[in-house]
Design goal:
The longest helix has 28 residues. This protein starts with a strand and ends with a helix. The chain has three domains: 186 residues, FAD/NAD(P)-binding domain, CATH 3.50.50.60; 139 residues, FAD/NAD(P)-binding domain (3-Layer(bba) Sandwich); 68 residues, Arc Repressor Mutant, subunit A (Orthogonal Bundle). α1 packs across α4, α1 runs parallel beside α11 and α6 crosses α9. It is an alpha/beta fold. The protein contains 18 helices and 21 strands. A hairpin with a 6-residue loop joins β12 and β13. The relative contact order is 0.14. Strands 1, 2, 3, 4, 5, 6 and 19 form a seven-stranded mixed beta sheet that branches. 39% of the residues lie in helices and 22% in strands. The protein is globular.
């Protein structure tokens, strides 16, 4: 079994930056990612990106090129195409790669697992033809496929980014249905200093909106009561906007309501988590250096708290410095000195995040869906099914799982988890922290019997 000073799970901006920092200070390092190449979601397939696709996707996407190039030449073990399905606080990591299960150990582990797109449970969201904006962007990056005649619905920066990318590709959206409300602008206006801490990013968002308007894409702001209809697939999306009913025929709907930390690995370790009321999600509890409630585990990037790619890159470097100090490869004085520039970047990005969180809050309709709306798409459990279990004494997601199978499907609660917590909190008049989240157990990814058998063979071969 290979042993390392530092193992990094995730090769997005946070993981790559952490690996580069670790190797620069002499740590024996391994970086693991389930994708075939580095980049994470934000820089997915960047190494295979040609000039035309790069122009379509924009400079934010191309920004990751230097980071990937530095990682590629790094003197570290790189395990791409490796799906981690178990880790423990002793430092043992179990993963599957090319049909075989294998293990490594590390003195310290940095989890940089990134974010998940928030589920959007609304009537009709499970129909064929509906997917998230993030999924559509993955198709753009990995395959050069662009959704045609799509209606984009929801809110948040990624919604406008993908709309602009579709325009660049010559595939203008059929319409944009923006659920952002006028009152959100007033809430965001209470953070003027935060907004102007990162003017360049704000201007980029304004440019996207101008591009959408100039292209003549129908734009409906302040939309509510979204309902997707069709049989057997999407045919129309209806909604209310400024007191009027609207219906748009389409075969493709792209939904987006922000992203949330991917906490599957951190939950499986029983690390402490806390509820972020502004972002309406749980995130791991850490110290300023990313050290979690188990001192040999650190967390960096969007898996720690949503902050975006630039924030994740700076945080990856900072968290690596903290881990190096724990490994006695760096003194406290040297750690603090090298951290100054990264802390400056993080402060700037945190200011912008406060503004964006106020500008794009999660809509009430999303966290309080109608009884008939499917919440767990794997097991077809509705919001009403969850609420009906409350009189029986269900106060937490793990109880509802036992009664309804909600959260027991292939996604293991990744998509329905937060909504179930919100529904139970409201129904029981408790806080989300009091309600809690699904108890995640290993393996957190599907594992075949053949993979388990190969692990047993490897263990025997490694035995003295």
């Amino acid at each position: 079994m290979n042993q390392y000073d530092l193992a990094i799970i995730g090769a997005g901006p946070a993981g790559m930056a952490a690996a580069i920092m670790a190797v620069a200070h002499g740590a024996k390092t391994c970086i693991i990612d389930e994708q075939p190449a580095p980049g994470g979601q934000i820089y997915r397939a960047l190494q295979q990106c040609d000039k035309q696709r790069g122009e379509i996707l924009g400079n934010d996407y191309l920004h990751g090129r230097s980071l990937i190039e530095n990682l590629t030449t790094l003197d570290a073990d790189k395990l791409f195409g490796a799906s981690v399905w178990r880790i423990d606080t002793s430092g043992e990591i179990t993963y599957s790669r090319e049909g075989n299960a294998q293990q490594i150990t590390a003195k310290h582990i940095i989890i940089a697992s990134g974010a998940l797109e928030r589920a959007c449970p609304l009537p009709g969201w499970t129909l064929p033809g509906v997917m998230t904006v993030g999924a559509a962007q993955i198709l753009m990056k990995s395959s050069g496929l662009f959704t045609v005649n799509a209606v984009l619905a929801g809110s948040g920066p990624l919604l406008y980014t993908v709309a602009a990318q579709l325009l660049n590709a010559g595939c203008p959206p059929r319409a944009i249905i923006d659920t952002q409300q006028l009152k959100n602008y007033f809430s965001a206006a209470t953070h003027p200093n935060a907004a102007f801490s990162n003017v360049a990013t704000l201007n980029k968002g304004i440019r996207y909106l101008r591009q959408i308007k100039k292209a003549g894409v129908p734009f409906y702001s302040g939309a509510t009561q979204l309902h997707i209809k069709g049989d057997p697939e999407v045919e129309v999306i209806s909604f209310q906007c400024r007191g009027k009913s609207h219906h748009i025929e389409t075969s493709n709907v792209l939904l987006h309501q922000g992203v949330v930390p991917n906490t599957q690995l951190t939950r499986s370790l029983r690390l402490q988590h806390q509820w972020n009321n502004q972002q309406r999600c749980f995130h791991p509890t850490t110290d300023p250096w990313g050290i979690a409630s188990s001192e040999n585990i650190s967390i960096a990037g969007d898996g720690r708290s949503i902050g975006g790619a630039i924030n994740a890159e700076a945080e990856g470097s900072l968290v690596a410095l903290g881990a190096l100090e724990k490994l006695n490869l760096l003194t406290v004085a040297h750690r603090n000195k090298q951290a100054k520039s990264y802390k400056k970047t993080l402060k700037k990005e945190a200011g912008l995040r406060r503004f964006l969180d106020a500008l794009y809050p999660v809509p009430t309709e999303l966290i309080d869906p109608a009884d008939s709306t499917i919440v767990c798409r794997c097991e077809e459990v509705t919001a009403g099914d969850i609420r009906s279990l409350v009189p029986a004494g269900c106060t937490g997601p793990n109880q509802t799982k036992a009664f309804s199978r909600c959260g027991m499907g292939p996604c293991q609660g990744r998509f329905c988890g937060l909504i179930v917590t919100e529904i139970l909190a409201a129904a029981n008049q408790l806080t989300p922290d009091q309600v809690g989240a699904y108890r995640i157990r290993s393996p957190i990814k599907p594992v075949t019997l053949a993979e388990l058998a190969s692990l047993a063979t490897t263990d025997t071969a490694d035995s003295p």
